[in-house]
Amino acid sequence: MPKAVRFTEYGGIDVLEVVDVERPSPGRGQVLVKVVAAGINPGEAKIREGLLHDRWPATFPSGQGSDFAGTVEEVGEGVEDLAPGDEVIGFTNRRASHAEYVLADATDLIHRPAGVTWEQGGALFVAGTTAYAAVRAVDLAPGDTVVVSGAAGGVGSLVVQLARQAGATVIGLASERNHAWLTDRGAIPVSYGEGVADRIRAASGGRVDAFIDTFGDGYIELALELGVRPDRIDTIIDFAGAEKHGVKAEGSAAAASAEVLKELAALIDQGKLEIPIAKVFPLDDVRDAYRELEQQHTRGKIVLKP
Q1: pLDDT of 188-199, one tens digit each?
Q2: Virtual CA dihedral for 196, 200, 206, 210, nearest 10 degrees?
Q3: Model confidence over 275-298: pLDDT tens digits?
């Protein structure tokens, strides 16, 4: 029997189990994909912990995971553009990609370009569409200066690159070990922590036009302190802060489409966008993968491979 990640109650990493499940069968308009790689995301950990119950409640037993890359195993009635053996990148809204097989709507899949590795494809959807939405939300234009918190993380590393492509000057907040990586991608690295506001002012020449927060922990207040207008601040994580201060909270849901996924995959295929892969774990080691994610020091994405 195929394996899948499940949890039967809210809790820490220890509630995650890899169990045998029935192989799914595609219905009309659906495709069964044999997963080659699947990304993991901080939001999944928060859902599993019950921290987002009011916004996105879990139904138990719950699966986990949204983005994946793999090969088409079987197609349902009415699916014409895909066939068994096709290599695809996609997403599911059923919390189900951390598994050996995943069901997806055919409309949520794209063909995998040759220049996109399995690991990149498996990690692309959530982080990629979140970064895409965040950059769009703050309306960047050539000449703007934008600050990005968590600039070397799974989403932040993509935000930095997309913001540079928009013509903005990017100040990336990150630990010193990630400064060289940011510099190589055209960003100005700044260390976070005490005194960060002064360091940003020095790096920006005193003018910050936009702020994208991928980390939380008070960065909305920092953006306001720096004089950024609320309509040009976007957080992908601090929903309470966004509501309190009237700033934007646009993330993956604002760009969750196969069209955006295809656009991002094309950028990778053309060598214009990079997804750093921090570590790859076997599906059976899903607990270790999330333990690594909790350290909040990875550069780029963590990926599971069944």
Answers
A1: 999 999 999 999
A2: -110
A3: 999 999 999 999 999 999 988 777
